[in-house]
Queue: 3 jobs
Job 1
Amino acid sequence: MNDEAPVRVLVVDDQRLIRDGIASLLSIRSGIEVVGTAVDGRDAVARALELGPDVVLMDVRMPGMDGVEAVAVLRERAPGCRVVMLTTFDDEEYVVQALRAGAHGYLLKDLPAEELARAVRLAHAGVTQLDSSVAHRLTAFLPRPLPGSTAAEAPAVGLSPRETDILRLVAHGHTNREIAERLYLSEGTVKNHVSRILKRLALRDRTQAALRARDLGLL
């Protein structure tokens, strides 16, 4: 018997059929409780503050307050709530804006119900997720380094050359093990470097690190 409390979910979408459909699909999944729905960003903020969900599944484009605006508000007013964007739009600008606003993931609505349930559980555990096609498009959207540029030449914002190299590899999606193999370091050393980088740059996770690396011209 599973004694763990279910993950409490709020579903936000301006289309009733989609909103109710997602809520119905999730409500029959083990370990998940749909505590409510909302019709737009403003309603989402009000309902989230009222119901205290663990995870909010948020559409991006909605009338009035859109999903990105709502994420930013919830980040300030309900920081313990994890918001995952669930949308049909895979536009790079939406992805970047949502992640910068504080979203813990960006997924497309065509994923299977079981994968959506898994995404909810992962978000609750603090794991940031990107749909595979979104991740590919985001990587393509990031600018490439200028010919002949090196990590040492990039604006490092207080990072050492080694940390700058690691940040670049993190941004390209490499795991700690892969980075360790490339730089001839132990996996534990890489893990410590990554933790220091995130702390020094005030970043929440590796996805935000990729965005910061783009801003610093490391990609």
Job 2
Amino acid sequence: MSIWEYANPKKFLSTTERVMPALWILSGLLMVVGLVWGFFFTPDDYRQGSTVKIIFLHVPAALLAINAWFMMLVASLVWLVRRHHVSALAARAAAPVGVVMTLIALATGAIWGQPMWGTWWAWDPRLTSFLVLFLFYLGYIALWEAIDNPDTAADLTSILCLVGSVFAVLSRYAVNFWNQGLHQGASLSLDKKENVADAFSNPLYVCMIGFGVFFIAMVFYRTGTEIRARRIKALLARERLEA
């Protein structure tokens, strides 16, 4: 079996419709367990108090905001190289989810940062690169909506995705690139001295997996919607020609 079989819209729809119910249930359970565990059954931090618990929303959302763009990049490259329409539609489907996750990350970061830094926002290199990534998301969605020809829209948005990937990389690895600024270092690290305590990391991992499964389910659902919408447009266009 080849992965390229799923570039066939019919095959993609039949497969995703079978697995989506399980994905919705699994993501819901993991997110509820992770968030309840994190917010109600973890201790306060000795420095940040109960404010630290926003980590269970902020980190998964920020991680998804960045990795959603990477997923869009891969799908866009597949479109540019192999011209598979499902990949272009999957990239389009992921963008609104990425926008929402970026907004959650920016909002929770501001709420977390205000009591810690004394300000809601700072032009920290890490925060700024994340804000630019959010603007690229908006531009990507707007470009899809502005162009009537779907193949032309897919081409131009794929190029935009390539350019925006620079800021996705900066957002992902800014903690390593810059040591200055207000933003703290990475919450999760292979170095036990830098990693958060197990009391926080264990529910955080559950939240991250739950958010990840939710993202996959959303992309499957929205891609299916895009495929059906394109089919309807094609049928309407055919009817107009025959009329």
Job 3
Amino acid sequence: MQVMENERIFENTGILIEGGAMRSVFAAGVLDFLMEKKIQVPNVLAVSAGAYAGMNYVSEQKGRAVEAVIKPLEKEKYMGPATFLKKGTFFDMDFLFDEVPKKLAPFDFKTFCNSKKRFIINTTDCRTGESVYHENFKSEDQFWKICRAANSLPFISRVSQIDGAPMLDGGMADALPIGKIVEEGWKKVLIILTRKSDYRKKYRFFYMMMIRLVYHKYPDFVKTVSGRSKKYNACLNEIEQMEKEGKALVFRPSKLAVENNESDVDTLMRYYRHGYEEAMGREEEIYNFLMS
């Protein structure tokens, strides 16, 4: 097996990390393996909860996702109907984006800012229905504010204000931003998906009825969400084509599947290890792909 003893940065390459709330721990497992092997990819594009995995890759905090996302559930059930009744959001956003990164599992914002890697995250502008990309963070408070907006799903989260613009979860406009990858011109991309290969998104009639009812003052946002399943599935087809052409190396869960609101610690740890083991089993393939 080919082994790289020294850290190497692979120029003109990127990582795309899909969201999916608690499913993001699979991506964290993949990224922790890359950190362990000192595989440095300079561009990190994260969608929604993918940010909670990707940020640790940039700040070089291997294992932090376990400490920040999974272990707190042993004592604090930070999601569910009780949280919604108390906070007005399904996930306790104050806990996840304030208490955890500053107290329970401190985030190394200094290393993050000084990293040679770019970290890109998207939100959805409710006024236009378009994806907005963020990579310049003026302060740590602003960083967490944007991350919170990027993870704010309709119905179960409040609309966030970023520079005066109403924002919701980035995955609503661009769950798999292949267009951004093309725009950036990355030659090679590691793509971390959080669902099995046979998954395709379905149009949900009742969900769209509720979207139209609750977000009627944002007609372009409603239009975007209406076409979301079709766009997502088209992007999956593009990713499969990129795989065939040798432009993408894709990691997906193959053995396990969890829901985005999974809260069982043991189940989430298995899903995290699944991601780590998927990457470990393809170590030589990763090196060959990035070096070719």
